[in-house]
Amino acid sequence: MHKIFGLEKRSKAMNLKLISRTKKEEIDHYYEIIRVLVYKNLKVRYRGSILGAYWSLLNPLTMTGVYTAIFGAVFAEYYNNSTLDYVLAAFTGLIIINFFSASTSQALTSVVSNGAILNKIKLPVSAFPLSAIVANTFQLLLGAIPLLSVITLIKTKSLSNLLLLSIPLISLFFVCLGIGFFVSALYVFFRDLPYFYELITFIVLLSSPVFYPAAIVPAAIKPALSVNPLSLIIENIRTIVLSTSEPSIVLLAKSLLGGLMITALGYICFQYWKSQFMDLL
Amino acid sequence: MESIRLENVSLWRRTQEEFSYDLKKTLFSILEGKFNRPVKRLVIDTIDLVVNEGEKIGIIGANGSGKSTLLKLICGILQPTSGSIKVSGNIAPLIELGAGFETEISVKDNIFLYGIFLGFSKAEMAKRVSEILEFSELQDFEQLPLKALSSGMVARLGFAIATNVEPDILILDEVLSVGDESFKQKVQPPTKKLWSLRLLF
Which of A69, A77, A109, A265 has the maximum number of C-beta atoms within 10 A of its C-beta? Predict the structure, then answer.
């Protein structure tokens, strides 16, 4: 570094008034950033058309059709011999898995793809993965959740189930948020991560009882699958939406707690690695 | 009054050559026992700098000598390895015009995006939008996506936003070379106007 610029003698005992931002202003700024990023994210995706959110239902609907055509007849016996029940079970599972894959994959690239702007303006880095998850949540709120609510009301005719539905969905949000923080930080260091992550999301899809009944999994392997936090969420949502049995408060609390723990862990990792980001972006 | 004070600021960074990190390579290098901690290089070596309100400072140096890095330290984007940095007043960095714009969304949305990134609220930006559009002469393009604009227009927009938000400290990093002659003429008065200080190079 050439010291060509005007170096000044240190002025003595000068009262430096620091106009630092207050905590509240910082939180307000963070909120504004999240809002504008979510808005940008949705706008880029839909170009102003609200119908875009319904487009996202195309994938789970198509896949449900395919799974039903292939497995529907074989697995119907696990679903009260009703193909309709199989359809609904597969559909609810697919919505959850799709949300997980889409939101965390977008969060994964969020920090790196905004590297240019992070190099110009000081911004709270965590706002980028968070806004990716929130934008996907909006999409879910517009597209899939109304549909799930209607199915719940038709199947169970109970308003309390409709309210309970929010708990596994909130758990899902937190699971995705935590994993989003974690993978977006990792991606800064390992740029071939998307390749591995695709594999991981595929394993998550297969290991969650989405298109097959949980009952067919061999007992020896079951504990390994219960590690998957999405299995519990899918089971919870099915009991609530399809009323396969009484919703269990213990299981609901367990999924919520698990989601919160994953968010906490992901955020801790993110904050711990954050100081090294700028050298690699 | 002092606006910026740097005391004994040093910064170690990872070297550029090692940017190509990936998981596969890292795993293999661990398996082969060749894994090394990333090498760091001293890029800024104990700098003291005091800038008072109203001063305009230019920093010159060879390519890669750390000019932009120094500005990033002042902006708070990078944290110094040792030493302290005190900045009073809000900073509008204009390091390379146009960074932070999203080409797919409209000019107006980009004004909001950039303004909020710079620390303003949506309500404040709503008041400033028309002024910014007027200064950059882009009123007719308000609803067009940014990718429809020429690079000179984008540069004008970036400049209009950064000057409109009236920062206490304006940081320019080789940015005024853009824009056509008539816009350069127009830029003169506001750059001379109310800024208490600017760092420019």
Answer: A109
